[in-house]
Design goal:
This protein has about 800 residues and is α/β, with parallel strands linked by helices. Helix 13 packs across helix 19, helix 17 (about 410-425) packs antiparallel against helix 18 (about 430-440) and helix 21 (about 520-525) packs across helix 23 (about 550-565). The longest helix has 28 residues, at about 620-650.
Length: about 800
């Protein structure tokens, strides 16, 4: 077992069939040269065939053969240890993938044997509501309309000795003793009788919203919830994971979506105990993927090193956002809504109430009805089920955070109930009587309610409201509150000091596999807050070229186009590739917003206009778009370098998402999981490190970002960063610098670069450094310390990293 007890930094690698564990082993030398402390792997347990992300685990007992298998993991570990790298692995305790039932032997056995299956307790199924069956919503219409498309294949197989029921590409196991010759003949009546005899019920796919009878991840019916709160299920699902720890194959774990579990704190307690039992060494580096709302604190009793860093991302983005842009961008948004005959926004809080209520009334109805069925009998007798469902949906829409952890968080429930009563006074009586039941942890429904607030929040906010609140796209990021437009330097330092004091080994991040926009896409979009009038004029010009007719969505899409515009778009092939990426993004963004078009029902005319806009932006109007990109790209690069330095040198454990040591201008997944050219990064790093190396310019190659990333990571390895002290600046441009002392290491970053440049630069502004000789590891230049002119210090790059 490696000696480190926590990483100094991590580098996230997306392990999949096209980038296996053996491929990861090949880049361990590059990671070490970059300055990385631990390699951080995406889920590696066997997942649904073809899965690029790995969160749809189908077999908890083995490393995915398609990702390299157990042998590949051993080879990767050997390579990582040879380079002194620790290993952090992502695990998925909340759910399993069931989109291809035959790939998941547990789920397959439950479909075949129903409640008699040894694996039935592992899944959170309401058998009574399903009349003893698992409801499987995969049909293209109601059963009566498609039954002629369902067939029985009597051919026995090892996992289906009684044959299969087939529906196009779907296959399901026949229950023991229920196959018949009549069903094999294809008779409609015999097929109906056969289906009636199964332990599953095939349903229209849209029935998943209201009539599903198993818990799932958010609204993803192909990810079935797992009951890890049961000791035997925990042991079965974690045996392979604990083997990794016992055999020295893993040093830490990243826990995906603990909020989906019945008792996240209890799960982390059990995991901590299991890790101690699995290793003679002190193993305890565990991260929880927890989204904190603005001002919310991570539960202090959780046995975790902290979150995966979205809170840090929000703070860094906002200190680099100009607060002066808020009013004019709000005015632009209001004008776009008026021109598009859309109602005016009354504020972020009201918007997310409405989008969360939309989720509660649609794709989360199954979960809410299950809570209704579990309410005390006296409540179900006093109020009709529809009234109870309405009141629960309203409380969920008003819930202010992802979830509570009763008895902690009771205040959140009371606040939600109070707001719900104000919004829906006719429900006062039922809400008042629901709250005691929802707060009673002796009742199952209290835990179910806590498991439901998160999906309503995630789907209503991240996957709906973020695509409707379009005034500045860089602020609509996972873990961020778009209602908070900017953060001043003092507020930023306060947040970092709190992290240093409370969660010094929590992860920090700027990009992940879940971010809506890559870090440098956001960095460029943030420039628009410094030039809102200029942006308004350019947007009007662009909309004159092509428009969907929906002003706020046009703003979202044109921001994405200019924000993610890559250097490679200067070639016809590169522009073609970018066009294809934008088409996929536009479709997802529009359907997630679900204002004009959606996933269940599409508006073909709107989507034609949307795709025409993308074609115009990357075709006839490409030169005009490129001219505006050129206008803001230098300031965007400045923001990107500043964000990276603030993240890596700030408190916490910085993660570098794969490839983001160069410009990371991706859009929402799966765009952010594209292949990474490690050979190019290796070549650039070697050129930067060469004896005759010239400091790279700030240009489209991203080499300057690689310089900043590598030097900052290496400093973290070499120098203990045991304090956090803000540094002061004095002079006319003092508001344009963020700087801090980490104990003889000084990080200096530019903020609001457009305003700085147009106002005449740094002029007489100085940074007040300790009176000691320092050297900038980015440029090699030395400074005496004391009051140091920022115009000299930041003459080459908009950032500096000084060491004594």
């Amino acid at each position: 077992m490696i000696e480190m007890r926590h990483p100094l930094s991590t580098y996230r690698l997306q392990i999949r069939e096209s980038f296996t564990l053996d491929d990861a082993a090949e880049v361990t030398d590059y990671l070490r040269d970059l300055g990385v402390s631990w390699a951080y792997l995406s889920p590696i347990l066997e997942a649904t065939p073809g899965s690029d992300h790995g969160y749809d685990v189908v077999d908890v007992t083995r490393v995915d053969p398609a990702r390299g298998g157990a042998e590949g993991l051993s080879r990767f570990v050997q390579a990582a240890r040879a380079k002194d790298l620790g290993i952090l692995i992502d695990i998925v305790p909340n759910h399993m993938g069931v989109s291809e039932p035959r790939s998941n032997s547990w789920w397959w056995d439950v479909l075949r044997q129903g409640r008699a299956s040894a694996h039935a307790p592992a899944f959170d199924i309401d058998w009574e509501f399903g009349a003893g069956k698992v409801r499987v919503p995969i049909l293209g219409a109601d059963l009566a309309e498609v039954i002629d498309e369902i067939s029985y294949d009597p051919t026995p197989a090892d996992d289906a000795p009684d044959g299969l029921i087939r529906y196009y590409d779907h296959a399901f196991p026949v229950a023991p003793g229920t196959g018949t010759d009549a069903a094999a003949s294809g008779s409609r009546d015999a097929i109906e009788a056969l289906l009636d005899a199964q332990n599953f019920e095939l349903r229209f796919w849209q029935d998943e919203a209201a009539d599903l009878n198993y818990r799932r991840f958010f609204a993803v019916t192909t990810l079935a919830g797992v009951r890890v709160e049961l000791p035997e299920v925990f042991e079965a699902t974690h045996a392979e994971i604990l083997r990794w720890v016992r055999e020295g194959l893993a040093d830490g774990l990243r826990v995906d979506h603990p909020d989906g579990l019945v008792d996240p704190g209890g799960y982390l307690d059990r995991l901590s105990a299991a890790l101690r039992d699995a290793s003679d060494d002190e193993v305890g580096y565990v991260l929880g993927e927890k989204i904190l709302e603005h001002g919310e604190a991570l539960p202090s009793w959780w046995k975790t090193a902290g979150t995966t860093g979205y809170d840090a991302l929000a703070e860094i983005d906002r200190v680099l956002t100009d607060p002066a842009g808020e009013v004019p961008l709000d005015a632009l948004d209001a004008r776009l809504r008026t021109e598009s005959d859309l109602p005016a926004l009354t504020g972020w809080h009201d918007l997310i109430h409405d989008t969360k209520r939309k989720i509660a009334d649609s794709i989360q109805v199954s979960e809410i009805r299950r809570i209704v069925r579990g309410l005390p009998a006296e409540l179900r007798e006093e109020f009709e089920a529809e009234v109870l469902q309405d009141a629960l949906a309203e409380i969920l829409a008003c819930f202010p955070v992802y979830r509570s952890y009763l008895p902690a968080g009771r205040a959140h429930l009371d606040a939600a109930a109070g707001e719900a009563e104000i919004r829906r006074p006719e429900l006062d009586d039922v809400i008042e009587k629901l709250v005691p039941a929802l707060a009673d942890t002796d009742l199952e429904i209290a835990w179910r309610f806590q498991q439901t607030t998160g999906p309503v929040m995630a789907k209503g906010v991240e996957d709906t409201a973020f695509y409707r609140y379009t005034r500045l796209g860089s602020l609509t990021e996972v873990g961020g509150d778009p209602g908070q437009f900017a953060l001043d330097v003092h507020g930023f330092h306060t947040a970092q000091a709190l992290r240093h004091a409370s969660w010094p080994t929590a992860m920090t991040t700027l990009s992940t596999h879940d971010t809506k926009r890559g870090e440098d896409t956001r960095a460029r979009i943030a420039v628009l807050a410094e030039m809102p009038e200029r942006w308004a004029a350019r947007l009007e010009e662009f909309r004159g070229i092509a428009s969907t007719g929906h002003g706020p969505f046009d703003a979202l899409l044109w921001q994405a186009i200019v924000g993610a515009w890559p250097a490679s778009a200067s070639t016809p092939e590169g522009l073609k590739d970018y066009r294809e990426r934008l088409h996929a993004y536009a479709e997802k963004a529009a359907r997630e917003a679900s204002e004009v078009t959606g996933w269940w029902e599409q508006d073909e005319a709107f989507e034609e206009r949307m795709h025409a806009l993308v074609d115009a932006a990357t075709g006839p109007a490409a030169e005009r778009v490129r001219a505006f990109v050129d206008e803001i790209s230098t300031d965007g690069w400045s923001n990107g370098l500043s964000a990276k330095l603030l993240q890596i040198m700030g408190p916490g454990v910085p993660d570098v998402y794969q490839g983001s040591e160069l410009w990371e201008q991706s859009l929402v997944d799966p765009d952010n999981r594209r292949a990474v050219d490690f050979a190019e990064r290796r070549r650039l790093l070697a050129s930067i490190d060469g004896t005759d190396a010239v400091r790279p310019p700030i240009d489209g190659t991203g080499a300057a970002k690689l310089l900043v990333t590598s030097r900052a990571l290496r400093v973290r390895n070499d120098v203990p960063l045991d304090v956090y002290r803000p540094l002061e600046a004095a002079g006319v441009a003092s508001d344009h610098v963020v700087a801090f002392d980490r104990g003889g290491v000084f990080a200096v970053a530019t903020r609001l670069p457009h305003g700085l440049r147009t106002a005449g630069g740094w002029r007489d502004t100085v940074l007040l450094l300790p009176d000691t000789l320092v050297i900038d590891v980015l440029t090699g230049k030395q400074y005496q310390g004391g009051p140091t002119r920022l115009g000299d210090l930041l003459a080459t790059y908009p950032v500096a990293l000084l060491i004594s």
